[in-house]
Structures are given as structure tokens and as C-alpha cells.
């Protein structure tokens, strides 16, 4: 949030961020006293149109006064610091008062919200601490181990029993072995370097974080196991993981294993997808409306069912998908003519919603001719999204694995959401229609009936600071459950000993090294996957269910509106209105609201996701393009007309260039802030659907 917006946000409107001629701040002007510097020194073209108007009005009032550079710079800097200080203290006081948690003891707002939830709202023995390396450490088979066994089986023409065929792993003296061939009385053991203490890959004294045993003792244990099996009369063949990595790159291995389907174990994080965003109609003239959900994610948190406890892991004897509640790894065959597909699919670094895998992976813009095998999507999805997909014509061809939760709850986050929702509503003041005691009473009663929250009439008054805190707490809470646990770290060292210690640590992966100064080195690193420490405040299942329910809520309206949809983004829809298809609006959680306050869109254009412009019935227009600051100068280059020109030309090579002569950037390797000219190029990038000649689009595989 810009510093200039903080005072209004926190109800400190007596504070106002002023203007300063930054381009006048040069060595020769440090002692300047005289007329106000020319307007160009304030760079008004980089302001928004509205801010530029306010500035020009202010400048006209000030230009005849005396400008003392040193005095004005001191006043400006003190004002900025004072605004930031007072707004921060107001935020801290409001958050402390509401939650009892000091937000400044946490790095992010999501962490502070999680602390507020854990301190007063979490239920005992309900939420699971998901193992950072997954549940398959305890109920696992190695995918590479199975690939090696399948390779040996195909190469030598023998049958090897393993975890993915027959009745699972063979038991020898009560203990399972990776592979067993009855014909040759041979045991095959795949030795994962991490789990068996490989002497080539790990130092001897490192403690394995999963087993709690040193790598040296793990190796001794593995060697002892192999020795005992041989004493029992079996032939034992070993394959170490580091040797298999080389083997699977050979031409012979690639040739033999072509066509073998060996699917990875289910990874719950693969079911965690983001919001749904896309342009459906690139250019439209007519009447359209822009609606969005009121607090979509808080609605999900309050009203939807979440899994609780640890899952039951199912790898065989699957039943109907309707019987499961959790996450499912499976292969599905989409229908061929669903205008708004249901299931998300990752391709080309983007979240797609296709009807054909092959068309999507190749970005095929022509009619799909692939068979079902080539169309099928293999992935991991939340069970509730799969159930919706099934009802829309998707066929589940094969289930590989299910994490099923026998217990569920719709009350996990209810008290937390209700607390901050009550504060937000009370701090918003009375609705405009509440002008009498009767209408105020009716408002309180209707809110209690709909949301189950008793508003306090004495507390209903406009309080921007408290409302901002409540809104932040409502919207910033859920994301902490899905946080990535292996973020890049940066370490600075000033001696060769420190440098070598990090570089030789086999528990971390060094990703970059640079020299920010002559006396220090910086190393960017992250933990090796198997050494990531356990976290106590994440649960990827809760995050995956949250975004799934949000997509389903949006999908319900996409399904109803059908081809009237022009554009959608997570919790909002722009659609062609005919006066009969408008959804009801309201002010409760999950209700639609009119983003344009009754105004009608008369023409709309979009160059792709996060990239659109429209004209309104009152003669105004709006343009939003992610990654571009559409200030006064840039909006002369990028606006409704120029975006329309590019879209209607359908020329993907056409470019509009926006220059920022003084972009503040961070030179990470030098640890410096610098001003640098930046040129950003805008062009059509719309490859998430198949574009038709009339500017409509179809999903891949339609």
C-alpha cells in the first residue's frame, strides 16, 4: 500500500503526505532558496490522473511562495516518517485490542493472523501436523525402485514381485523386501541413499531427520540386513540410488522402459491450485456488468467443510469417488464439449482448465483430434472438485491413490471469521438505508439471522483503522496453511572457514554465490528436500480445500452464465447482461456485489488474464494491466483504445512500449537500491484457450 493511502486507511486523515521535487534534489541545489522549482521537477506525469490533478491544484497555490530546499526536505522526510510511525502504531493497537497478539512480533500479516487463531480459536487435537516429507515415509515404496525392478524384469524376461503388482512386497522372515523373483530365488533391494546412509553421498556423523539415526549406523544396518538375507540362502542384488540416476539416463534403459506407466505417489501439495483467471471473450460491444463476491475466502472458511485429523492412505480396492473426502490422484477423461471445464491443470507454468492434455501441452489452436489416451489428464485434485467434474461429464479412468479423511468439520474457522467479520461490519457504519431506529433494528436482526452474528448497535460507527485491521485478518488468514516450507535463505560470511562450512554441508543446496563487497561473500541456499525441518503451523490440505471451494463457488456462476461470460478472476465475473441473467446481489458473505455501482459496461476488451479495459455508460473508462503502473503518462500509451487496437489486430508480435525513466530496483548481488530506466513491453499473450475469429474462445480440446 502506498504511504499516501495509509492515513485514510487508518482514520488519520489529519496526516497528509506532501509533494517534493525529487528531480531537483541535486548537489548544486542543496542550499537553494527562491521560487518553487518548476513543475517538471515533481514528475507529475508519473502520478495517476487523479493524483496529478490534486498536485497541480496544490502547486498553483504554492508556486508564489518561497521554497527553502533544506527546510522543505526536512519537513517532507519528517512527515513521511511520522505518517508511517503513527499508522503502524494505530495498526498495532487495533490488532492487539482485537486479538491480543502483537503483529510486530511476526514477519508477515499471515503469521500474525495465524497466531491470533492459535491463541484463541483453535480446537484441541483436531488439526493434523502434516509431515513435512509426506506420509509416504511410513507407508512408502520408491518410484525409482519400482522402475529399476520393472527394468530388470523386462530386460531379463522374469517376473519380480514388488509393491505395485501382485499382493505387494514379499515378506522374508516377516520383513518386506523391495523385489523378489521366485524362479531365481533372488531378492532385489533398492537402496535409497538418504534412507540407507550412503557413504558416497552423506557424511558419516549426519543424523537422518526422519529416522533419528546417524548415516553411519543406517549403512551398517542396511549392510547387516543384506548379509542376513544371503545367509538364508537368497541371492541379493543391490542398486544404490546414485547409481540408478546414471542408469536411467542410458539409451538401453530409456528404450526398455518406453511405455511403462509408473506413477509417482500422491503429493498433497499437487492438489493446491490457485484462483481461476481468464478472458473468455476478447472483444465485446453491448451491455455488460462487473460483479464480485463479498469476501469469498472468508465465506469458504466459515461455511465449508474441512478435513480434520490424519488421512487414511488408500492404494487399492478403490470405491466410487463419491465415497471419498480428501485428495485423489487419478486419471480423468474430460468431456469434449464443456464450455467451462472444471478441473485445473498445470501446463507451461500456468493454471489451465482444458479438455485435452495434448492440445494444452502443445498450445494447439486447431480442432482437437486426439484420442482419449492423449486427452486424459493425470493429476491430484480435491475430492469435491472431482465430484463436480464427474457431474459435468468427466470420466474417472483410473484411481492411483487416495488420502481419505473420515472426519470433517465446518466449524474450524467459524469463531475466528465471526470475530473479525463483526468488527468489520460494525466499523463500516450503518448502511445508507438505515436512517430510522426501525431500519437499524431490522438490519441488526437480518444480520443475526443470516450470519449468526449479533452486532452491537453502540459499536456501529465508521472506524477506518479498525475496519482495515478486520479486513486484513479476514483475507490474510488462510494462506499461511499452504506456505512453502523450503524458502531460499541468504547467508553472509567473512572467512574461508565459514564459506567452506556452508558449501560442504550435505543437508543444504547452495543455489548462488556472489560477492557484495571485497570483504564478504553471500551464499543463497535452501534445505535439501529431505532435511526440511518440520513445521507446526501449516496444513496443505486446508489450503487446498480453501482454494478448491472458492473455484467451485465461482464455477457455479460460470456454469449458470455459460457463454455470456466475458472475463473472470478468482472472485469476480464480467458478463453480458440481458436483464434476465443477473444474479442477486447482497452484502452478506458470499453474496455478489455490483463492482460498478449500477453503471453498465458498453464495450469490453481483454488481451488475456489480468489484462482488460472497458468503457462505461457514464462516459468514463478503466484499464487494468498487471505489471504496468498506469500513471498519467503511461495511460496515454495503454488505455482502452490502444488495447482494443492490439486485440482486434490479433497480431501477437505487435508491441506497445512503456518507459519508466527512474525505476527503483534492488541490485540483490550488490545489496543496493538504484534508479534505472525501465522499458516494459505490452503485447498479446492469451494462450489459455483457443481463440476464434469472432474474438470468442474455447477450451483446449473442445
UniProtKB/TrEMBL annotation:
What's one Pfam family the UniProt record gives for this protein? DNA_pol_B_2
InterPro entries xref list: DNA-dir_DNA_pol_B_mt/vir, DNA/RNA_pol_sf, DNA_pol_palm_dom_sf, RNaseH-like_sf
Annotated DNA-directed DNA polymerase family B mitochondria/virus domain residues: 3-166, 269-428
The terms describing its cellular component in GO are:
DNA polymerase complex
GO molecular function: any one? DNA-directed DNA polymerase activity
Q: Which GO terms describe its biological process?
A: DNA replication
| Catalyses which reaction(s) | DNA(n) + a 2'-deoxyribonucleoside 5'-triphosphate = DNA(n+1) + diphosphate
Q: What class of enzyme is it?
A: transferase
Keyword terms, alphabetized: DNA replication, DNA-binding, DNA-directed DNA polymerase, Nucleotidyltransferase, Transferase
The record's Gene3D superfamilies line, in alphabetical order, gives:
Palm domain of DNA polymerase (3.90.1600.10), VSR Endonuclease (3.40.960.10)
User: What EC numbers are recorded for this enzyme?
Assistant: 2.7.7.7
- Please report which protein family the annotation says this sequence is part of: Belongs to the DNA polymerase type-B family.
What PANTHER family has UniProt attached to this entry?
DNA POLYMERASE, DNA-DIRECTED DNA POLYMERASE
Q: What is this protein called?
A: DNA-directed DNA polymerase
Gene source species: Larinioides sclopetarius
Amino acid at each position: 500500500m502506498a504511504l499516501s493511502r495509509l492515513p485514510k486507511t487508518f482514520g488519520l486523515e489529519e496526516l497528509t503526505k506532501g509533494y517534493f521535487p525529487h528531480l531537483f534534489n541535486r548537489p548544486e541545489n542543496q542550499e537553494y532558496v527562491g521560487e518553487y522549482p518548476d513543475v517538471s521537477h515533481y514528475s507529475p506525469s508519473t502520478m495517476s490522473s487523479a493524483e496529478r490533478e490534486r498536485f497541480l491544484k496544490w502547486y498553483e497555490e504554492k508556486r508564489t511562495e518561497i521554497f527553502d530546499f533544506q527546510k522543505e526536505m526536512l519537513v517532507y522526510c519528517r512527515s513521511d516518517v511520522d505518517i508511517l510511525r503513527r499508522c503502524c502504531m494505530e495498526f498495532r493497537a487495533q490488532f492487539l485490542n482485537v486479538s491480543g497478539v502483537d503483529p510486530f512480533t511476526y514477519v508477515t500479516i499471515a503469521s500474525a493472523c495465524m497466531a491470533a487463531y492459535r491463541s484463541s480459536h483453535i480446537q484441541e487435537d483436531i488439526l493434523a501436523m502434516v509431515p513435512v516429507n509426506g506420509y509416504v515415509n511410513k507407508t512408502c515404496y520408491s518410484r525409482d525402485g519400482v522402475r529399476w525392478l520393472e527394468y530388470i524384469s523386462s530386460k531379463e524376461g522374469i517376473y519380480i514381485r514388488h509393491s505395485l503388482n501382485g499382493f505387494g512386497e514379499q515378506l522374508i522372515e516377516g520383513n518386506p523386501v523391495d523385489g523378489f523373483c521366485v524362479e531365481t530365488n533372488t531378492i532385489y533391494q533398492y537402496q535409497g541413499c538418504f534412507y540407507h546412509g550412503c557413504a558416497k553421498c552423506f557424511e558419516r556423523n549426519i543424523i537422518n531427520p526422519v529416522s533419528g539415526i546417524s548415516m553411519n549406523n543406517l549403512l551398517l544396518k542396511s549392510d547387516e540386513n543384506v548379509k542376513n538375507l544371503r545367509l538364508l540362502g537368497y541371492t541379493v542384488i543391490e542398486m544404490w540410488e546414485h547409481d540408478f540416476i546414471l542408469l536411467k539416463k542410458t539409451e538401453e534403459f530409456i528404450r526398455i522402459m518406453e511405455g511403462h506407466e509408473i506413477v509417482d505417489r500422491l503429493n498433497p501439495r499437487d492438489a493446491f491450485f490457485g484462483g481461476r483467471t481468464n478472458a473468455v471473450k476478447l472483444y465485446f460491444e453491448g451491455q455488460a456488468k462487473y460483479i464480485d463476491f463479498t469476501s469469498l475466502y472468508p465465506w469458504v472458511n466459515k461455511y465449508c467443510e474441512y478435513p480434520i485429523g490424519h488421512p487414511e492412505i488408500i492404494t487399492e480396492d478403490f470405491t466410487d469417488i463419491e465415497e471419498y473426502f480428501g485428495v485423489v490422484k487419478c486419471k480423468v477423461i474430460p468431456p469434449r464439449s464443456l464450455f467451462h471445464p472444471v478441473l485445473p491443470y498445470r501446463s507451461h507454468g500456468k493454471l489451465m482448465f482444458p479438455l485435452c492434455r495434448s492440445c494444452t501441452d502443445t498450445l494447439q489452436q486447431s480442432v482437437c483430434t486426439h484420442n482419449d489416451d492423449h486427452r486424459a489428464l493425470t493429476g491430484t485434485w480435491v475430492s469435491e472438485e472431482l465430484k463436480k467434474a464427474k457431474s459435468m461429464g468427466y470420466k474417472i479412468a483410473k484411481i492411483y491413490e487416495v488420502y481419505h479423511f473420515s472426519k470433517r468439520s465446518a466449524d474450524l474457522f467459524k469463531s475466528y471469521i465471526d470475530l473479525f467479520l463483526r468488527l468489520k461490519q460494525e466499523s463500516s457504519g450503518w448502511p445508507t438505508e438505515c436512517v430510522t431506529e426501525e431500519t437499524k433494528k431490522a438490519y441488526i436482526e437480518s444480520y443475526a439471522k443470516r450470519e449468526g452474528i449479533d452486532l452491537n448497535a453502540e459499536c456501529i460507527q465508521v472506524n477506518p483503522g479498525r475496519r482495515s485491521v478486520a479486513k486484513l485478518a479476514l483475507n490474510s488468514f488462510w494462506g499461511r496453511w499452504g506456505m512453502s516450507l523450503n524458502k531460499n535463505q541468504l547467508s553472509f560470511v567473512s572467512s574461508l572457514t565459514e564459506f567452506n562450512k556452508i558449501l560442504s554441508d550435505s543437508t543444504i543446496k547452495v543455489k548462488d554465490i556472489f560477492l557484495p563487497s571485497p570483504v564478504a561473500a553471500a551464499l543463497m541456499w535452501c534445505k535439501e528436500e529431505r532435511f526440511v525441518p518440520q513445521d507446526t503451523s501449516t496444513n496443505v490440505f486446508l489450503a487446498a480445500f480453501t482454494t478448491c471451494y472458492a473455484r467451485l463457488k465461482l464455477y457455479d456462476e460460470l456454469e449458470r452464465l455459460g457463454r455470456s461470460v466475458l472475463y473472470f478472476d478468482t472472485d469476480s465475473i464480467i458478463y453480458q447482461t440481458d436483464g434476465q441473467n443477473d444474479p442477486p446481489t447482497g452484502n452478506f458473505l458470499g453474496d455478489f456485489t455490483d463492482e460498478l455501482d449500477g453503471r453498465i459496461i458498453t464495450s469490453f476488451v481483454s488481451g488475456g488474464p489480468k489484462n482488460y479495459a472497458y468503457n462505461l455508460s457514464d462516459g468514463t473508462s478503466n484499464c487494468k494491466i498487471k505489471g504496468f503502473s498506469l500513471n498519467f503518462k503511461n495511460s496515454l500509451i495503454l488505455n482502452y483504445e490502444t488495447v482494443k487496437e492490439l486485440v482486434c489486430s490479433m497480431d501477437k508480435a505487435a508491441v506497445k512500449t512503456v518507459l519508466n525513466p527512474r525505476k527503483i530496483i534492488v541490485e540483490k548481488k550488490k545489496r543496493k537500491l538504484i534508479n534505472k530506466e525501465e522499458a516494459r513491453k505490452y503485447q498479446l499473450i492469451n494462450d489459455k484457450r483457443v481463440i476464434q475469429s469472432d474474438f470468442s474462445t474455447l477450451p483446449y480440446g473442445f
